[in-house]
Specification:
By secondary structure, the chain is mostly beta strands. Helices cover 8% and strands 39% of the residues. The N terminus is likely disordered.
Length: 196
């Protein structure tokens, strides 16, 4: 992701679009067609999951010593299972989304799915503008996944970044009552422009 300096990133819905730069380089991606239930957290410790997604609405300790971290999302409640014997992370038994699987396999369409603007469990630093890569991407008033987003954005929407905070970007947009800011998770964005 850091190698994108000087390369134009174009996010497309269906058809391929070229975005030439003065140096002639271009890069084309396609938007995600489905929204993942939650960002991928496989292999993360419970504390890392909380840092990556924000505090869960409910935390439960199961009989097998795993933790069930439940989040109230705009799409309904979602649960992530972590831990296990001796604290080793266990895979999430919840059904994997078709989108997550499609990101890992080669695409036959004009471009690959746009990469997330995350660096591990943190938002990439030095980003000036992002482009929304997933349908119904929520922006929240605090850096945590909640049921009540300030706004939902569509793929291809460009937003200026005010700052990066953990796994979140503080983004700005023109709302009904003037300029607004909110927190967008790095998994919902792809980098459009790095700061100079």
């Amino acid at each position: 992701m850091r190698a994108i300096c000087g390369i134009a990133l174009t996010l497309i819905a269906q058809a391929a679009l070229a975005s030439p730069q003065s140096n002639g380089a271009e890069r084309t991606f396609r938007a995600m067609t489905e929204r993942p239930e939650l960002p991928a957290t496989d292999g993360l410790s419970p504390q890392q999951v909380k840092e990556f997604l924000g505090p869960p609405a409910v935390t439960q300790v199961l009989r097998d010593k795993r933790l069930a971290l439940s989040y109230a999302t705009p799409d309904g409640p979602r649960t992530i299972y972590v831990g296990g014997q001796m604290g080793a992370p266990s895979p999430n038994p919840a059904r994997r989304s078709a989108t997550a699987a499609s990101e890992r396999r080669p695409s036959s369409s004009p471009g690959q799915v746009a990469p997330a603007a995350c660096d591990g469990i943190l938002a990439l630093s030095g980003v000036r503008n992002i482009t929304i890569r997933a349908p119904r991407s929520p922006v929240f008033s605090t850096p945590q996944i909640r049921q009540d987003p300030l706004r939902l954005f569509s793929p291809g929407t460009g937003l200026p970044v005010v700052e990066a905070s953990g796994a979140w970007y503080v983004v700005r947009w023109q709302g009904d009552r003037g300029p607004q800011t909110g927190y967008l998770h790095c998994s919902d964005a792809t980098v459009y422009e790095l700061a100079q």
